Known about the structure:
Layout: H1 2-17, E1 19-20, E2 23-26, E3 29-30, H2 31-37, H3 39-46, E4 53-65, E5 68-79, E6 82-95, E7 98-108, E8 119-129, E9 138-139, H4 159-171, H5 176-181, E10 184-195, E11 200-206, E12 212-218
Antiparallel strand pairs: 1-2, 2-3, 4-5, 4-11, 5-6, 7-8, 7-10, 8-9, 11-12
Amino acid sequence: xxxxxxxxxxxxxxxxxxxxxxxxxxxxxxxxxxxxxxxxxxxxxxxxxxxxxxxxxxxxxxxxxxxxxxxxxxxxxxxxxxxxxxxxxxxxxxxxxxxxxxxxxxxxxxxxxxxxxxxxxxxxxxxxxxxxxxxxxxxxxxxxxxxxxxxxxxxxxxxxxxxxxxxxxxxxxxxxxxxxxxxxxxxxxxxxxxxxxxxxxxxxxxxxxxxxxxxxxxxx
Length: 220
């Protein structure tokens, strides 16, 4: 019994020590080691190119129920460099017609990439309506998973290092200071909202300044 108790205490201690001072530890390697010293990661980030279109949304139906308007919306995330390739497709039913789309933007510093030019990743987080709090929103990308749009980005790295990278992005998302220490220039949320109507497609694009904005086009 004493041995069992000692084992439990050891596990709890290691768990507490796994996050210290804004640095996540995975075994003997830290996120700092990965971001600062991994040439394959730097090379992978260098291959990122500026993206214009990163997804779109369209209304499938709107209906009144018990005096309230409900909107069923389809959200589609497109592949990098291939707007016809849908890497994620989900449907949501949300009260009201004003819908918020929330993205996490991660910008790497000039020192983090091989050619000295800043690069960014865009990770969709959630969708929610006017009557909901953001914390009640529906997931788009699942935290801790590998976003399909960036599948293959880290293919030359070992699997544990790939997992560390994606987990670290989500784990440290609320600590911009620590992220900057690990070679990330900025991390911030960008939530945009629109009053949605059937017959239109809302194309989400990224501006040169990293801001997400919706462009409205007719659904042909």
